[in-house]
Amino acid sequence: MKTILETDKDFICDIKAPCFKMLSNDEIELIRKSKTQVLFRKGDSLTKQGAFASYILFIINGLAKQYIESNNNRNFNLRIIKQGEFVGLASVFTNNIYNYSSICLTDCQAFLVEKEAIVEVIKQNGLFGFNIIKRYCEQNSNLYNSLSNVLFKQMNGHIADALLYIDELKMEYSDIFQLLSRKDIADFAGISIEGAVRLMKGLEKENIITLKDKDIIINDKTKLEKISKSG
Amino acid sequence: MKTILETDKDFICDIKAPCFKMLSNDEIELIRKSKTQVLFRKGDSLTKQGAFASYILFIINGLAKQYIESNNNRNFNLRIIKQGEFVGLASVFTNNIYNYSSICLTDCQAFLVEKEAIVEVIKQNGLFGFNIIKRYCEQNSNLYNSLSNVLFKQMNGHIADALLYIDELKMEYSDIFQLLSRKDIADFAGISIEGAVRLMKGLEKENIITLKDKDIIINDKTKLEKISKSG
DNA sequence: TAAAACATCAACTTATTTATTGAAATAAAT
DNA sequence: ATTTATTTCAATAAATAAGTTGATGTTTTA
């Protein structure tokens, strides 16, 4: 009956993310007071595009995907959210509404911090704020990458990008492809499912990748990168 | 690219729920300013047990289920949320954290109102507040029913209760059983899936109910009510 | 402690989703 | 106008999830 885990004061210090290490006791206390910890199950949504954003989420462990929803049934996947990352930063600071959805690819232990507390701590602790902003900028630049890919490339480039992006996560999360459906991959590439399937089969024929059940192994990264560039 | 539907001032007045009819123009404006409308898809979660509650949801159309999560994989279904109902009232007024989860059984058009606005309007408009409270009490009494069922009855009574509860919705939503899995029914009864299957087969043998694919037809309501009472 | 009330496990069946492929329809680019 | 790029539709296969049943364990209660 307990998805809300009681956590003691030490717990927040225990988190691996460097950004929490630099907080003073007072600041930790401030965060601790206005946080709650939740176990999200695989498939649960962390944020819903269009809903109010009153808190940010910090992912303690697990993987999730962040995407934008379209009016019909096609989504565009923006990124994989990894452990130690924040979700909802921008929404909290600016428009008060999540402009993307995100759902768990695995069970995700997360803690939620109310925006007032985060704002307060950032105001107090410049270094903390700096790190938060840095992270946010990194995420944002990825987003711009995604956008330019979508805008200026075509199918082959898209799927190459998607595969290269996901493959980068494979070092840390070797089973990442197991967690993704063809629709997920297609949504990363911004193309139709059938298109994604076809192109990947094509890449397999040219020995650039190997499709092994759900897993995808990149045999010739150089060639894939060339395809990515040539679009 | 638009799940957030822009809605004009008239829209909120247009909602069938009686409780919105009694608002003044100013109050409507207040709500309108701090609301956003979202299309939740079948399977999307409306609230997550343990997460912060900064807004209430008003369901414009669609069906959802409200349940409490347990540490393992067993949930207890509290109720079906219907169109015209609120989700998250208590959480907003009291503890600031949702003490239950809820997910959509069908696509749900909902609008979200930030708690500050709801609180403000309730303070201004007694009749509105009264209605909100009335609704909340109704929900709560159902909850107590559920609890006492769980506590004081056993399997036969539980499944009878669950079936009777769901059957009541059948007038308005004739396909309600199509939307529910055996796990859902078991979770309403608070028993194991296998237990639910077995008992329902038993009830079918005694001609009390008919299982027709996913649909369940109650043939002998009186007998089922007797089972419910006798526990 | 024995019976009753359930839950859990394992095996199996059935239904639903996901993946794949060819063909046809649009749309964009040359 | 005619390739070229891409989506959509339809049919099928493969994989996964849901439903069902019997047998076995575990509590609870009398």
List keywords for this structure.
DNA-binding; 10 strands; 4-stranded antiparallel sheet; disordered N terminus; 231 residues; alpha+beta; Jelly Rolls; homodimer; 9 helices; Arc Repressor Mutant, subunit A; 2 domains
What does this protein look like?
2 copies of one chain form a homodimer. With 231 residues, the first copy, chain A, is an alpha+beta fold. Chain A has 2 domains: 2-7 and 15-150, Jelly Rolls; 153-230, Winged helix-like DNA-binding domain superfamily/Winged helix DNA-binding domain (Arc Repressor Mutant, subunit A), CATH 1.10.10.10. Chain A is built from 9 helices and 10 strands. Chain A has helices spanning 9-14, 25-33, 89-93, 115-124, 126-152, 155-168, 182-189, 193-205, 221-230, and strands spanning 35-40, 45-47, 55-61, 64-69, 75-81, 86-87, 101-104, 108-114, 209-212, 215-218. In chain A, the strands form 3 sheets. In chain A, strands 1-8-3-6 form a 4-stranded antiparallel β-sheet. A 4-stranded antiparallel β-sheet of chain A has the order 2-7-4-5. In chain A, a hairpin with a 2-residue loop joins strand 9 and strand 10. Chain A is elongated. Chain A starts with 8 loop residues before the first helix and ends with a helix. Mean pLDDT of chain A is 85; it is low at 1-10. The interface between A and B is medium-sized, with 26 and 26 residues. Chain A binds a DNA duplex (30 and 30 nucleotides) through residues 154-155, 181-183, 191-195, 197-198, 201, 213.
